[in-house]
Amino acid sequence: MSIHAQERAEPVPAPRRRAAAVSHPSRAERVATGKAARAKAPLESHAEFTPTETRPDPVDLLLGQATSRAPDLVPIRHGRMLVSPFTFYRGGALPMAADLATTATSGLGVQLCGDAHLSNFGVFASPERRMVFDLNDFDETLPGPFEWDVKRLAASFAVATRESGFSNKERRKIVMTVVASYRKAMREFAEEPTLAVWYARLDIESYIADMRGSVKPARLKNTEASLAKARSRDGMQAVSKLTTVVDGQVRFRHDPPLVVPVEDLFGDVERDALYSEIRDLVRKYRRSLQSDRRHLLERFALVHMARKVVGVGSVGTRAFVLLFDGGDGVDPLVLQAKEAQRSVLTDYVGRTTYANEGARVVAGQHLMQAVSDIFLGWNRSPGADGVQRDFYIRQLRDGKYSIPVEELLPAGMAVYARACGWTLARAHARSGDRVAIGRYLGKSDRFETAVSDFAERYADQNEADYAAFAAAVKDGRAEAATGI
Q1: How far is 58 from 182, CA to CA, in rounded Å?
Q2: Phi and psi angles of residue 105, each rounded to the nearest 5 degrees, phi first
Q3: Cα 90 to Cα 221: distance, rounded to the nearest angstrom
Q4: CB atoms within 10 A of CB 94
Q5: 195: left (phi > 0), else alpha (psi -120 to 50), else beta?
Q6: Of 153, 222, 241, 416, whose CB has the highest number of CB atoms within 10 Å?
Q7: Residue after which a domain boundary falls, among 362, 395, 428
């Protein structure tokens, strides 16, 4: 029996799940559930946010997160959050989770993204090589009240449009747009067959075709150029940007602190041990894939590895890029292994039912995304320090492209807001009771009015928290490395 055959014969580690009976209420019962939720949390209650004297110190919460992260990278995270109130907001999912836990909730649950701000939406290539628009960050995913994602998304537009210098009227219109898009889409999904909801996706090519005649030709041309750029952001582009040739072999560049090959991080003994651990991680991770994708991955051999700094809020969690070769150094595959820590929502909605945090991320992503990376999987591995850590693995940059929201004018931001609202509703409709949620949201604009009020209040709070964080850096309570 071959090594690969032996590996396939081993049992796949099973995530821990709570056994639960599945109920199938009638549509009338689901409508009644949505109507009853109005009594628990009237639509107007979603406008409310008043921080109390017992509100946790957001700086304390952020410094508490630092204790489980790579110490040399924490200052980079703080430096990126210090750039502006919006970058602070991007990294501040934990303080906002604590705040959302104090607000009114409908009791209507979905699979939450947990960090559904506007920069966590983007374009990427589907397995069918179509460009789709979707959520793309699930580090914090857990089941919880649907409105938490909506409020985080709405507040992100309020924060970002302030930073862009939009007028009060423009900001209000854009925030109302994103929430209205969510409400209307959810009500539409409530009327559609279940499979139609499951197959729904925002296909970018079709979306661009629908835009023709409704936007200026120059703007449409810029959008199409951006999509062409996104299509080029694949494994080959990642290889050309991140690697160099050393002694005739393709290897990751030394670009500290953003990209550091493992041989530059550790001594020879530690490096060899780490490579052994990573190969073990890859073997075990392979078993989390469905069989055809496992077979595909077996065509590639691991040849190099480096630590890579990623994102804003994620900086400090262990993240590695793995270079594989399918033959003779000209058939590359680049995967990213990213540490999965406990969700920021855990203390407020309960622990995950999965035994592995990486499995939690993967399951949430599969449930919320219309299509997911074919190499998306998970595993647990001991680090060089002997600490067991959970990881999820996926391709690096498979057509991934983030919309440059800081460059959007009000009209463009409104178009983007509609896309984000629709996409979040589609993600929630897959896991939650779309009929109950649609009935709860109703036909009027009361929900978007309330959430827009909340978003403005929370944008004020975010600015105050940002100022407190900047003061903590200035007085030495928090360390920040800027410009990285």
Answers
A1: 29
A2: -130, 145
A3: 30
A4: 22
A5: alpha
A6: 153
A7: 395
Residue 343 sits in the same domain as residue 429: no
Whether 431 maps to a domain, the answer reads: yes
Chain Cα centroid distance, residue 183:
21
The span from the CA of 243 to the CA of 8, in Å, is 32
Q: What is the CA radius of gyration of the chain?
A: 23
pLDDT of residue 174: 97
Q: Which residue has tokens 């928090």?
A: 478
C-alpha to C-alpha distance for 51 and 481, rounded to whole angstroms: 30
Residues 6+ positions from 326 with CB-CB distance below 8 Å: 299, 300, 301, 332, 333
Per-residue pLDDT band at 51 (split at 50, 70, 90): very high
Residue of 181, 211, 174 lying closest to 455 (CA atoms): 174
Peptide bond connecting 257 to the previous residue in cis, omega within 30 degrees of 0: yes
pLDDT at residue 306, rounded to an integer: 92
pTM of the model: 0.90
Nearest to 92 by CA among 101, 105, 102, 82: 82
pLDDT at 190: 98
Same domain, residue pair 69 and 205 = yes
CB 363 within 8 A of CB 354: yes
pLDDT: which is higher, 232 or 184: 184
What's the confidence (pLDDT) of residue 274? 73
Residue 351 belongs to what domain range? 234-395
pLDDT in tens, 225-284: 666 665 555 556 667 788 888 888 888 999 988 999 988 887 766 777 777 777 887 888
Q: Are residues 77 and 153 in the same domain?
A: yes
Burial zone of 316 (CB within 10 Å; 0-12 exposed, 13-18 middle, 19+ buried): buried
Q: What percent of the chain has pLDDT over 70?
A: 87
CB 139 within 8 Å of CB 115: yes
Q: Quick one: how far is CA 59 from the chain centroid?
A: 22
Summarised one tens digit per residue, pLDDT across range 319-376 is 899 999 988 777 889 999 999 999 999 999 999 999 999 999 999 999 999 989 999 9
DSSP string, 216-264: -HHHHHHHHHHHHHHHH-SHHHHHHHHEEEETTEEEE--BTTTEEEHHH
CB distance 312 to 292 below 8 Å: no
**Residue 3: per-residue pLDDT:** 30
Q: Do both 269 and 373 map to the same domain? A: yes
